[in-house]
Description:
Number of helices: 11
Oligomer: single chain
CATH topology: Hypothetical protein af1432
Mean pLDDT: 87
Distance between the termini: 14 Å
Largest sheet: none
Helix content: 55-70%
Amino acid sequence: MLYRARQFWQAISAAPKAQDLELASRWLEPSLLALFLRLQPSEQAHSLSILRQLSEQGESEPDLMAGALLHDVGKVCCPLSVWERIIIVLGRAIFPSLVKKWGRGEPRGWRRPFVVAERHAVWGAELAAQAGASARTVRLIRCHQEIPAPSAEVESAYSSSFSQEERWLRRLYTLDNQN
């Protein structure tokens, strides 16, 4: 519950600083930076937090870093209010199987937040591809919420069987859900 309260506070108060945007510009070409800047300030801050954590973990692959910054960019197609984000979180907690069902269709009416939550990865991948992102960055954006993060024991035991891209997706998935 404390985690969700912190997330709520960040959603209404987070805004990237000039040095944060400078950091994003180091990893994104101008067309991709323009796309990143279309995100709501709280979404920019969320993506920058993931980027920083990846950097602290020793990551420096441009496709992964661009994917971290742009993983939620599909949300620019249908920006969500704070209240809609709360509805998504509550829906996933109370009715997880129904949320997937509610996420099908067009983003209209009461289902709108669920559709955005379910489809933003595909929309973002399309936007990133149109803006000139690499094929690997596009795949990371498209798949960032599909791959469940394995436990630390499973990942260390089987990490040699995962491709580099699968390891990045697992890391992106984990950090996205922690932030």
